[in-house]
Every structure is written in structure tokens, then in C-alpha cells.
Design brief:
The protein has 68 residues and is an all-alpha fold. It contains 3 helices and no strands.
Length: 68
């Protein structure tokens, strides 16, 4: 089981990502994602941004394209 020092260490690590996650959310929110049925271009730009972000932090991304 986890002791209080381990839990505190985990919380501190999570908290260390706070500013990065706020910036990520701001960037994602700034990219329009309106479906073609509503005269938008869909979510491709937002998905490409997120894919690039995840790859830059070292994650492997699998892409599954879907129709709009």
C-alpha cells in the first residue's frame, strides 16, 4: 500500500504539470472544431495538434480516421 510520502510525491509530480496542461488546453480551445454539417472543417486540425504534442512528449500515437 502507499504511504503518505509516496502519495505526496505523486501529487507534487502531477502538480508540476499544471502550467503545461493549462497551456495545452488553451491551445486546443483556440483551434476551431466544427463539423462539416455545420459548415466547419471538422476536427482534423485539432487532432493534428494533439498528435504532434503527444509525440513531442515521447508517446506513440495510433491514428484511427473516422468519417465526419
Amino acid at each position: 500500500m502507499w504511504d503518505s510520502n509516496q502519495i505526496e510525491s505523486i501529487f507534487k509530480k502531477i502538480d508540476s504539470y499544471r502550467d503545461s496542461m493549462i497551456e495545452l488546453q488553451k491551445n486546443l480551445t483556440a483551434i476551431p472544431a466544427i463539423g462539416p454539417s455545420n459548415k466547419g472543417q471538422g476536427e482534423a486540425k485539432k487532432a493534428a495538434f494533439l498528435k504532434d504534442f503527444l509525440q513531442k512528449i515521447g508517446l506513440t500515437v495510433e491514428e484511427y480516421n473516422a468519417s465526419d
